[in-house]
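Provenance and format

Records in this collection were gathered into a single text stream. Each protein contributes a sequence line and a token line. The two records reproduced below are adjacent in the stream.
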Amino acid sequence: MLKVEDWAEIRRLHRAEGVPIREIARRLGVARNTVRAALASDRPPKYEREPRGSVVDPYEPRIRALLTEWPRMPGPVIAERISWPYSMPPLRRRLAVIRPEYVGVDPVDRTVYEPGEIAHCDLWFPDTAIPVAAGQSRTKLPVLVITLGFSRFMTAVMIPSRQAGDILSGMWRLISQLRRVPKTLVWDRESAIGGTGRVSAPAAAFAGTLATRIRLAPRRDPEFKGMVERTNGFLETSFMPGRLFTSPADFNTQLDDWLAGANARTVRSVQARPVDLLATDYLSMIPLPPVQPPTGLTNRVRLGRDYYIRVDTVDYSVDPRSIGRLVDVNASLDTVTVSCDGQIVAHHDRSWARHGLVTDPVHKDTAQRLRQAFTEERHRRQVSVRHHSDGHTVALRALPDYDALFGVDFTNPTTKASHQ
């Protein structure tokens, strides 16, 4: 086959210098017909191998018969049905070519987002053990991830649970860091946000305070929020490997440091750095509201005799002087606060353990004093002492004790009337 450089030299000698075909053939040591072919061709010679048959060719009719009835039949199943004797790569390559003839082609348009228009939200569950309390570790703690559509700027924070209050607390923390609010927050059918197909009441109240809207993705359509799905994969492959964590706070600290560098890299799809595009995103977002939106785990309960309230499987002590009264519980990502009639009666650091017990020593001491005072008062009221004529002491029990002994119930109107 004629080399490209010989082809170029033949054309130069003949057209630029006017060298005859016979002389060119002599100089280059090629046949005159080769010179004539080179002069007749406007393109350089290209080696093309004649196509050879594939080991798949004899099986293709049977493959097509299966795809006609079951277009999405997996490759391993097809290999089993046709008794495929070779390795899988040749069969996969042929399936990639002929399967679209039966299942059709589903093209995907490239979506272009305007500045400040949208942010994709999702939960990511890293499969690593993180110490949360003495002797306890938890895996697959949820990490809330938000990716801005225009700038591709990424933010994330680990939260204690998938409950609505914790998710909304995480969203408020990340949005507060941005100092502006995206016009639309895209979520999948996360149970606490829109598990029924409609935005939940807590999420709607949160969005209303921020003057934004929450848009739910269609069922089983991860491509609808593909940006944050890719962010989750990026975190899994680039942030997690080789890292150890001592607590959820340590996880968030390392994650913040890593995100600072990740947002400074050039993103291929936008050919820019997210940290540089964030300013444009910022100018088109909504200002933060003047008041904080409703977030956290909240509850109102009547404090029982054991003076503990439960938040996400963990029991927290409360000032026992509030026993029997209604108390308001508010748990953020970091703290648990309990108030009664506007006065704070408990304040604890949030525990991420399972079935834990958090006790304030002051509450325990107060309970001990109240218990002792109650016991002394009960003894004073139920037992009085007088002296017999011979000098020894005689204990007199309270009259209700005798009523109970003889079965007399003065709360019954009939009994009360008969004794009158």
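Adjacent record:
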Amino acid sequence: MKAVFLDRDGTIGGTGGGIHPFEFTMYDFAPKAIRTLNEVGIKVFLFTNQTRVGRGYFTEEELKEGFKRMEEELALHSAFLDGIYYCPHKPDDGCECQKPNIGLLLNAEDDHNLLLKDCYVVGDTGGSDMLAGHKAGTKNVLVKTGWGEGSLSSFRHQWEEVEPDFIADDILDAVNWILQDIGQ
């Protein structure tokens, strides 16, 4: 089964930096991109580092309520997520789930009987999203929204050993490339 893992901040909305879940808004084109994947039967998972929970900026309950609100907004556009995987830990907690570690991807692989080599990671940060996808063996798409432009320039040294399979203008461009890549 094929699946697409989407980063939240900077990929489907926001600015790239962590934001309170009640203040997060999706880009106008994000629901269409997700619906397009839904319509062709590709699983769509959110996978996101939410270190601000561990650092006390907001609670895990607030984060979950923010996810619920996002899912309700997606439903208004006939779009949905097949699952949400997040890391609530502080950066120095040493967990296996925080990107660029691949614990979130491995959990989804187990939960949904996936083969990560047949999956895609779409994100705006090379140092976390692209590195995680590379370690997990997925195909990787870097979007230029959020921190994407900076990942390609100022922060390229943090992930210089990894080349994304595609560099997209935004999530909709990424989805169109994925569909072409799988022959849809």
